[in-house]
Amino acid sequence: MNVKVAVLLENGFEELEAMGPIALLRRGGLDVDMIGVNNEEQVTGRFGVTYSSVYPMNTYDFSDVDCLVLPGGPHYQKLEKNEEVLKLVHEFAENKVLAAICASPTILGHEGILKGKKYTCFKDMDEDFGGKYQYEYAVTDGNIITGVSAAASIEFAFAILEKLCGKEHTDKVKASIYYDAKH
Fold first, then answer.
1. Distance between CA atoms of 137 and 43, rounded to whole angstroms?
2. Cβ distance 131 to 114 under 8 Å?
3. Residue 32, Cα to own-chain centre: how many angstroms?
4. What is the pLDDT of residues 9-48, one digit of tens each?
5. 85-115: string of b/e by CB count within 10 Å (b at 16+)?
6. Maximum CA pair distance of the chain?
7. Nearest by Cα to 109 from 84, 72, 162
8. What sections of 51-152 are H helices per DSSP?
9. pTM of the shown model
10. Reduced DSSP (H G I as helix, E B as strand, rest coil) percent helix, strand, coil of the chain, to 5
């Protein structure tokens, strides 16, 4: 398929919001890389799950990446303070696909990326970002995809997959994981 996705991870990320999309996007045939913002080859989530096989951000080439994904969790505060992350967020918002879930869409809001856009984020974190808040699992507006919370990880992943590969391909991947009691 030759579609590439980079998932930005810093210690404290929400495991469900990272692994759900990583697993489903890989199931859909996409090339998904985990990128350690801390420039180490492993990161640990908020509940102690450690992911290895992580590429250090300072040596990673984002030029051939089609979509940047920001899981939520407490690490969003570290992401928001990182100038290199903010630079990437703006590059992807302007030229590629940018996806953020739960707490991470607030980074997009604070950076002015959600102005005039439909979006979602963890409800208690919604501020006046100049767009139209939607209380839905996943919202796509142009090249910006947002997810509401950890419970939305699967629908968020499918929204990314559909944006990158189309509805027909996404429906095939959905059929591979959903149980159909009629058959």
1. 26
2. yes
3. 11
4. 999 999 999 999 999 999 999 999 999 999 999 999 999 9
5. beebbeebbeeebbbbbbbbbbbbbeeebbe
6. 51
7. 72
8. 76-80, 83-95, 105-110
9. 0.96
10. 40, 20, 40
What local confidence, expressed as pLDDT, does residue 128 receive? 87
Distance between CA 99 and CA 93 in Å, rounded?
9
DSSP state of 44: E
- Nearest CA to 33 out of 59, 14, 139 is that of 59
Q: What is the pLDDT of residues 90-101, one digit of tens each?
A: 999 999 999 999
79, pLDDT greater than 70: yes
Distance (Å, rounded) from C-alpha 31 to C-alpha 120? 26
| Distance separating alpha carbons of residues 162 and 174, to the nearest angstrom | 11
Q: Are 99 and 145 in contact (CB under 8 A)?
A: yes
Which token pair is 98? 């940018």
